[in-house]
Structure formats: structure tokens, C-alpha cells
Amino acid sequence: MECQFKIFRFDAGKDEKPYYQDYSLEAGPTDKILDCLNRIRWEQDPTLAYRMSCAHGVCGSDGMRINGVCALACQRLVKDYETSAFTIDPLPLFRVVKDLIVDMEPFFEKYRAIRPYLINPTPLPEEERFQDVESRQVFDDAVRCILCGLCTASCPINSENERYLGPAALLRAFRYLFDSRDLGEEERIRILDNEDGIWGCQTLWKCTEVCPKEIPVTQCLGKIKKRIYDMRKGE
Question: Which CATH class is domain 2-102?
Fold first, then answer.
């Protein structure tokens, strides 16, 4: 069938303001949106810019907004939409570098702020620090995060408060906060226990709705809140 694509265009180096450009091509129901973008770029307009790598929902690089909803272009098929007309925008809330490419550095700056690694000052063991299956299962879902940025781009709180850490950074904090091998709880709680941290989350579920790995992000963030609440009760 013939599909129509209305794609956001903007080159920060030369354009005064953004605009949309129209393209049309024949596509099948099982074609990925990324397949369509590739064909537009290869066959019609080599100046179109977007990120992609694995094309299989693993790297998370091709996040964009498709018909108003943030998604990975490599995961969404033409048949997933009840239309043959597609509007493609860059991820919202991020500065556009060119077309569908956005500056992800502020996203990763917040990610780094929660110290996304094991904090354990005890002497290194001769072998790795082992963890039993039950302890791992507590945060197993969170490990699937590929840092695509869809949750942060979709979060209404991030649009209101640019200092808010956002669901991706908070989810990674959850992963280490509940890791039985990690001893950095006090430090991480100091980072999280404020309105720009975990209390900025208003449980709107947008992060969970768009997560390409189907992680229950909102539930994980709720467990952080409960942990801090229980700590306060025990003081």
C-alpha cells in the first residue's frame, strides 16, 4: 500500500526554524517504520538524518515520536497503526541537532548523577561478588533498560521541571538501590530524596506505557518511594 510520511526537518547549522517534508512510498504491513525511513533516505532523500544501529530493539538508538507517541522505529510496524499516514518527529524535550537526531547529553548527565555502578568499598574478593537468584529477581526487570530515552521524553514531569532526574535515571537508581551487593544506599538516597528526584514522580504511567522492553517502570519507582518512606518511619 502507499504510505505517506510527514517528517520533521531541521538543521541547527543552517535552518532558521523547523519544517515538515512529505514523502510517499509503497510499504507492506510488516515493514518496520525504520525500514520505511531507510528507503526514503536511500532512494529519495540522502539528507534525511536519524539515528539507528542494531535495528532490532536492542541498542535503543532510533527513538522518535511516531504519530504522537514515542517509540523505537525498529519495533513499530506499518500494520501497528490504523492509518497509512505517518507523522514522524524527534523525541520531545530534547534539543534537535538535525532532523530526528537530538542531543542526548542532558539525559546521560542525569543518568550519571545517580552513580550507575556498584558502590562497595569493602576489599575485593578473590572471585566476583556472588548474588543469589532471589536477590537478583528483585531488580531483574530493571536490568532490561536500554537507555533509549523514550520514558523520559514521554514524562509530563520532565516537560515541567528540567531538573527532574526522569524515569530512566530513577530506574537505574532502583536497580542499584535494591542490589544486595551494593553499599551505596545512603549516598543514593541523598540524591533521590527530593522533588527533583523520586518525589517528582507523580505516577502518571507514561514511562511504563512507552517502554520498548515492557519494564514496569512506574512500579519500580514506587518501590523507591516505599523504601525511603520506611526508612523515615524507622528513624
Answer: alpha beta
Angle at 162 between CA 219 and CA 228, to 5 degrees: 35
Query: DSSP state, 32?
Result: B
Residue 154 contacts by C-beta under 8 Å, 6 or more apart in sequence?
Answer: 69, 70, 92, 206, 207, 209, 210
CB-based burial, 187-221: b 16+ in 10 Å, e otherwise: ebbebbeeebbbebbeeeebbbebbbbebbbbebb
pTM greater than 0.70 (yes/no): yes
Backbone angles phi, psi at 233, to 5 degrees: -65, -30
- Report the C-alpha gap between 136 and 151 in whole angstroms: 23
Q: pLDDT tens, 163-180?
A: 999 999 999 999 999 999
Q: Where are the domains of the chain?
A: 2-102, 105-234
Question: How many residues does this entry show for the chain?
Answer: 235
